[in-house]
């Protein structure tokens, strides 16, 4: 799969109050968003909760009225589709192919080892690595931190975070599915807001 461009994310209406150690952006602040993201996509990847998808790293920057980066500013991010998840970078780590799986060299072999009876459900006695996720763009396995181990169960399409010392909020967009089928998919919008400024960009299937 090919990504034409990937960089930013974050979104919609500011909530009142602060999350620990953060503050609302002052009047006159600006929010830097990425260009739209275009990805190669097909029905092969479009089944929800199949552990096959695409991870896109997204960066968003907040600048103050004077153009300087602002740290500890509250940012809301939202995806308008339940099959496109928003995850903090701390929730995701890359992992190597399973060393315990003799002969496991491709994703197909990997899944066959986890679903011996081929009923589409991971076997109860399967290895722990059978819960890993496959990024079809990088040909890489990913594992979610324990707090996000059941990401498919709750589909986190909302994220409330804060900028770091570089004025940056970085997160992963995990594309599990897109609305549509048979090569015709609807764009998914990722919206961001810091209260005094807001914007959005879209994920488009090629």
**What is the H level of CATH, i.e. the homologous superfamily?**
Immunoglobulins
- The structural domain count equals 1
Question: How many strand elements?
Answer: 14
Shape: elongated
CATH C-level label: Mainly Beta
Alpha-carbon Rg, integer: 18 Å
How much strand?
A: 25-35%
Helix content: under 10%
Q: How would you state the average pLDDT, rounded?
A: 79
Largest sheet: 7 strands, mixed
Q: Using the coordinates shown, work out and report the CATH topology.
A: Immunoglobulin-like
* Name given to the CATH architecture: Sandwich
Structural class: mainly beta
Low-confidence stretches: 1-18
Give helix and strand order, one letter per element, not per position: EEEEEEHEEHEEEEEE
Distinct helical segment count: 2
Distance between the termini: 10 Å
Short structural description:
This protein has 206 residues and is mainly β.
Keywords:
mainly beta; Immunoglobulin-like; 7-stranded mixed sheet; 5-stranded mixed sheet; 14 strands
